Here is the input.
Amino acid sequence: MSFLTIEDLKIHYQLKNSVFKAVDGVDLTIKEGQIIGIVGESGCGKSTLVKGIMQVMARNGFIAAGDIKYNGESMIKMSESKRRAILWKDIAMIPQASMDSLNPVYRVVDAFIEVMTLKGGKSKKEAIVRAGELFELVGIDKKRLRDYPHQFSGGMKQRVAIALALCLDPKIIIADEPVTALDVIVQHQVLTMLNNLRSQFNLTVILITHDISVVAQTCDELAVMYAGKIVEKGNIRDILKSPRHPYSMGLSNAFPDLLKNDKLISINGSVPNLALEQKGCRFVSRCPFSVDICHTHEPELTEYEEGRYAACHRVHDYNELQELAKGVSVWDKVTS
Amino acid sequence: MGQSDFLIEVEDLKKWFYPKQSLIGRRKAPLRAVDGISFSIKKGTSIGIAGESGCGKTTTGKLLLKLYDATEGSFKFDGVEMNSGMTKQELKDFRRKAQLMFQNPYEALNPRYTIYQSLQEPLIIHKYGTKEVRRKKIINMLEKVRLTPVESYLHKFPHQLSGGQLQRVVLARSLVVDPLFLVADEPVSMLDVSVRAGVLNLMREVTSTMGLTTVYISHDLSLIKYLCEETVIMYLGSIVEKGPTDKILFSPMHPYTMALISAVPSSDPDVELKELNINNSITSADNIPDGCKFQDRCPYAQEICFKQEPLLQKTKNDHFVACHFSEEIGGKQYENRLCSTRSYG
Ligand SMILES: Nc1ncnc2c1ncn2[C@@H]1O[C@H](COP(=O)(O)OP(=O)(O)O)[C@@H](O)[C@H]1O
Ligand SMILES: Nc1ncnc2c1ncn2[C@@H]1O[C@H](COP(=O)(O)OP(=O)(O)O)[C@@H](O)[C@H]1O
Ligand SMILES: [Mg+2]
Ligand SMILES: [Mg+2]
Here is the structure.
């Protein structure tokens, strides 16, 4: 069952003389109990998208179009009080760099008490008990509840952030780059924990990252974002084993992997300026496979096989393109 | 060049940091950031130093560049002892021959200098040639790191370049004075994924054409595999395993190395997220117990591990391991990560 859907969502930032279209028409269906990954390089709009869902955008940010539906009901049109009852209780976020967002002058337990008494209607006593349970769940001794944030290592702070997001028993957790900047062992522990939470509590997880190898072993579904749009989405295995969009093909060339000996290839060039009017495909200036139509018409995200979507005019040439994409010289044609 | 096959030879090198002592109360123990490490690097080869943050990688890099004075131990550069009796001129000479590549390109470059000025500065410091010779050198170096056409970059300022381009400038700046030795500390961790590959390829190519000896510091083993012939695994200031990279990655003998490798995520969706055979850590560099430093996290620890520190010893596998039980644990316990595949529910 799909219970969170994002429909043609546009989130823009008002600049002095222009509008920056950070998220420019995103469609996404999130199914219960799944882990869905959203990948893309920095600046493609991942954080803007999740802040939009949580309605915690920067002051100059606004939802320009589209809708976010929870159990079929528009979260944009619903009353403020109803929305507040859903956000944090049903849908919680682990913000990017959340490790540093804990207030340094308060004991960690105070953050838990605040969320649970103000947003969850619990008493202080209940909150402390629950916080202790959550600490154990994420593998930290509950004696440390009364410590200050600086007394925790980076990996522990990230686990505290996860525990905090779980405070009100949400159904969905949105984790924005939860393992970026963590050591591999801690990264592994955090990913394992998200995996376990999903199987224990049927939790739905939206996992945002710039690193394909982070999603490969944890997610069921994947959406690849580029310049404010989703360029490919579907089952994770399908996409990683047989990418249909040239950007996805490029991403899988770009990562070192212990199991591979291939030469790494970068995607040269840069992202278009989203404050300007876009003409044609957003990836065209970096795409080694572009043809005339790519410069003039923006490709739509279309379902060309059951459950598989891509936004590319040459989606049906994928066999040929996948072969070509393995060649270094192909990508060198586009100069940085 | 000296007679030795090795550019770098390090013997029982230590760097301890001594905390300020308070007037009352117990004396605080020193923080043993680097705690007696030995290794050598053959001329023209590259070595990777890996391990979790805080294990002493950066401190080791700084010791190798003489940015820190060692607490103890020997460090020979091209056969010459560096930790005692160096003249000012020798040190200055060393400063040219040994270069650091910064992690963060935004901090490495002066924002008010043009690219030309940034590259010219080290040449002036080391009194390199005339203005015209320097200019040629700079242009040649920018070509080597593929910032072409060079003319379009010379007079740009850092803020006008992308992260990937800036990191090429940083590389060019370290190499413009013709060093013999380069330490690159997490060289691409600040870069966007799509441009990392380009910088890594460039480093691989340029260091090999220039015949440089290189140390790459990274917590990312897949990156070290891509760049380095030899690998050193550090844990709390000590080397727990070292040897040829392939041997380390595909037949590790130390339980810590095994955990580190199993934790590296793969971009292959058919590889399962493995369980790590490691406990949570309680030891820190200013609180080192007797015996093996890894004892509290090790699933195989026995009595001797709490009493006696294991020494780095050569294994039948041709690499070096510091573990009392490496022969039993290595090979037997380590399953190739290729074997376990993910099941889709
Ligand atoms: N408050 C803001 N005002 C203007 N532009 C912004 C603002 N916040 C983010 N942006 C821009 O929007 C784009 C998307 O940012 P973000 O959503 O943070 O990307 P990601 O999380 O994928 O790195 C970037 O180009 C960023 O510079
Ligand atoms: N200048 C310093 N003074 C005191 N302690 C330091 C200093 N530099 C590093 N340390 C400590 O030494 C240990 C090793 O640090 P570092 O070499 O930076 O590790 P890594 O690069 O592997 O993360 C850490 O415990 C760190 O806190
Ligand atoms: Mg972000
Ligand atoms: Mg470091």
Notes: Residues 299 and 314 of chain B are 22 Å apart (CA to CA).
